[in-house]
């Protein structure tokens, strides 16, 4: 929201960076989830990518959404054709 930063460019950058981190975690997601991410500090816009991904992955693990090991099969949402 505008409470984080007045500039829409910065807010969109934060949103895109978080989406990308979640996309990188997607193979390890254990099931279908709706995720809401709330940002309170604008420093996420300038946080190094590795550090931001580690923070997001840690929060997803704490929530029980991401497993520690990658799944070997298809994602739970995808059904295999017979």
Topology readout:
Elements: H1 8-25, H2 49-62
Helix pairs in contact: 1-2
Plain-language structure description:
- With 82 residues, this protein is mostly helical.
- Helix content is 39%, strand content 0%.
- The protein is built from two helices and no strands.
- It is elongated and about 40 Å long.
Précis, in short:
The chain is an all-alpha fold. The protein contains two helices and no strands.
What labels describe this entry?
39% helix; mainly alpha; single chain; 82 residues; 0% strand
Global mean pLDDT = 83
The H/E string reads HH
* Uncertain ranges: none
Tally of DSSP β-strands:
0
From the spread of the alpha carbons, the general shape counts as: elongated
Terminal CA distance reads 45 Å
Classify the beta-strand content into a percent band.
Answer: under 5%
Helix content: 25-40%
The largest pleated sheet is described as: none
User: In angstroms, what is the radius of gyration?
Assistant: 15 Å
**Global structural class:** mainly alpha
- Specify the number of helices: 2
């Amino acid at each position: 929201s505008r409470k984080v930063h007045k500039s829409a460019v910065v807010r969109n950058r934060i949103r895109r960076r978080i989406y990308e981190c979640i996309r990188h975690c997607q193979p390890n997601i254990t099931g279908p989830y709706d995720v809401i991410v709330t940002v309170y500090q604008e420093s996420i816009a300038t946080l190094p990518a590795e550090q931001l991904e580690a923070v997001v992955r840690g929060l997803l693990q704490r929530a029980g959404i991401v497993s520690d090991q990658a799944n070997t099969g298809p994602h739970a949402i995808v059904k295999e054709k017979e």
